Amino acid sequence: MFESVKVSAISMKPSRWDKVGNANRLESFFRKAGCAHPDLILAPEGALEGYVVSDIYEGRRKPEDIYDVAEPIDGAYIKRFQDLAKSLKICLSFGFAELLGKDVYNAAIFIGKNGDILGKYHKTQMAEGTHDSWFFNRLGKDIRAFDTPLGRAGFLICNDRWNPMIARTLVLDGANLLLIPSWGDKSKRQNMTVLARARENGVAVVEANVGMNLIISKGEIIAYRWGNDQITTAIVEIPVPTSKNAAYASERQYMSLQGPESKKRYEELQKRLRGEMSLTALAERGEMVTDLN
Question: pTM here?
């Protein structure tokens, strides 16, 4: 059993350290993507600040500079996109540097269509590792799914997608939709890795990467677009949570098809017995042919 959901991914390339400009461009992209009336729009990792931590650990900027672009969860920029989600009546999701006390986390947020914050996640696997002194890039400590109008969802931020344990933990917590805001590898290898995460767990995946969008449904890539500042929209089939009600609904769906299918098979059997349908014709249809004893 599945539920059809329309999703959009944005391959926006933010400018480093330009929080004001990035916020304006992000809103513009959200509004443009909203014209297709999706249920959810996902933007990349670091959409607000421009994923600036590499400038710090590579020595181009001071660690304290992160405070100029980090955003608290109750900050004016987050409120701006809460208001936008409510205005568009569309769920919005994106990555940003979250200021929490004196520490900064690589975060992703899910805002519901009514403007409520329904989910938040801190990146738990960094390609560059971490150090106790790195207040500008703290590691996340929790891997949890969250409830949304589209079903239960979970985030993997960029490098998280390479670790199957992170995705599996989210699915074991009930996620049937995985969201990947990213700023990184756009190779065929990463595409196959994200496809593996979808197939391993039997869930839909939406990835918004800087320079590439990827959408997966029922274990297949259904939408892909290369290039910066692109919008990709597709309908994904999200598996409903397991339950007796879901099982009964699936049973009813099958039973509604059982009678017509059995009648068709019976009629084809009679044709074969009368010599009107050859074994070759049956084989070409890909059906199993057995002796009738």
Answer: 0.86
